[in-house]
Amino acid sequence: MQSNLAEKRDELYTFEDYLTWDDGQRWEIIEGRAYLMAAPNEVHHDISMALSRRIGDFLEGKSCKLFVAPFEVRLFPSSKNAKKYEKGLVQPDLFVVCDSSKRDGARINGAPDFIIEILSPSNQKNDRYLKFKQYFLAGVREYWIVDPESRVVQVCLLEEKRYFVMVYDDSYILPCTVLPGLEIPLGDIFPAD
């Protein structure tokens, strides 16, 4: 694969294209466009670790499983008549899958139940708009967008064929709707000022 792949804005790619790339880089394909994933900064890493500890501890002994990036998700794996852009893949920062039939050992095939994306300066457009749309279309039941800079979490809940969006600051203890009983004190996940 060529190193300037992401600069080819007029070309569309699929999951099948991705399988032929051997450059060792982490890529996502969203709406047919290839996006090179940057390594997370320290704040991003710290938030991811705090969330993964809380969620992982909560899921201990339960049937749902937590995944942490890098791990591939094909949101539309069996859409034989899918548009080309629906045949891509994403690598969310954290996600939970409760249906074990979606796991094949290498990737997740179908929408996770719960996804968390942590914003970085380089990925805000993808997480707020492009992935938001894809997660909605795929049927992701709960999607959190964590903004380290403003110390807020935007929660998107899928109800009645649309996302209801709420924003919580770091003073809240945030319950996870799709994992009843999981509550995360947001002040604990953001690094101290």
Can you offer a commentary on this structure?
The protein has 193 residues and is of the alpha+beta class. The protein has one domain (5-189): tt1808, chain A. Helices cover 21% and strands 28% of the residues. It contains 4 helices and 12 strands. The protein has helices spanning 15-18, 42-59, 124-138, 186-189, and strands spanning 27-30, 33-36, 65-68, 72-74, 94-97, 107-109, 114-118, 142-147, 152-159, 162-169, 173-175, 183-185. The strands form 4 sheets. Strands 3-5-7-8-9-10 form a 6-stranded mixed beta sheet, sandwiched between helices. A two-stranded antiparallel ribbon has the order 1-2. Strand 9 (152-159) and strand 10 (162-169) form a beta hairpin. The longest helix has 18 residues, at 42-59. The protein is globular and about 45 Å long. It starts with 14 loop residues before the first helix and ends with a helix. The mean pLDDT is 88.
Descriptive keywords:
193 residues; alpha+beta; tt1808, chain A; 6-stranded mixed sheet; two-stranded antiparallel sheet; 12 strands
